[in-house]
Amino acid sequence: MSAERNDGKKLEDLVTLIEGMGLQPGFKIEKNQPVYDEEGNQIAELDIIISGKLGTGKFRSLIECRDRPSDGSAPRSWIQQLIGRRIDLDVDKVMAVSSTGFAPGAVECARENNIELRTLQAVDADAVATCFPSTAPLIRQQWHICSTYIALSNPNVLDGDQPRPIQFTMHDTCVIEKASDKRLSLFSMLGPVLNAGSFFDGIEFNGARQRQKVVVDESDRNAYFVEREGLRCEIEYLECEVEFWIEGSPMPLASVQEYKNAAGDVYAKVAHWKGDPNDVVREITVILGKHDPS
Fold it and tell me: Which helix (H) or strand (E) holds 95?
């Protein structure tokens, strides 16, 4: 399997979230802003722009991100490029964010030219164990349908005077939503009913499963047909035996990163949990901060 392509967008997204957390009223943060020449041709794209008003004047800050693990520390030449961009774009402030740190020459050049530096780099999860649990801080409300009884009505689905037995599984796409004519399974139809009810009241976290009988309301079942042998049948009655339980997520902690300045002052910590590709929730990211190091 090929490695996931790194286009730098994940770093930009995280920086946008972190820097956006502390914005004052009247300021906005925007990503991937195009830059055009006098003929209207796009000549560049700015990673992140923060803009707003200070007093009676306007303020614009540019944040550029670099996420190139295979290239090592960000070099002095990149900082020099940002100095030129500050002049060309007439922005008030420039910040450089690197996921691999900065070369000594880059740090010196940034200090001499008033370019702020930030890094977002991995730290040992054990060092932040008091901040982030080893599995995702996610409580999952789970249910399992043990059995189902459904009564359908259609005058054409008869065997003499008696309804013919109808066979289908929970995952057959034989249910049709009346409003949209969309096909779905009985399992998918029941999902919103079971998730939205009060069936989890009184169930202990990581406790025993509780079995309940669920009778679907008329308003919920009347929104659907069940199609059999080309005929659409009304759902006259729908009842399920369902097990309900509440458990913690098994999604493991995949990485922890710190967002800090050149002096090592931490502004935020970023934790990322990653689960199975088949899970409903595949990954979770939590940002802890923003901290003012002053």
Answer: strand 93-98
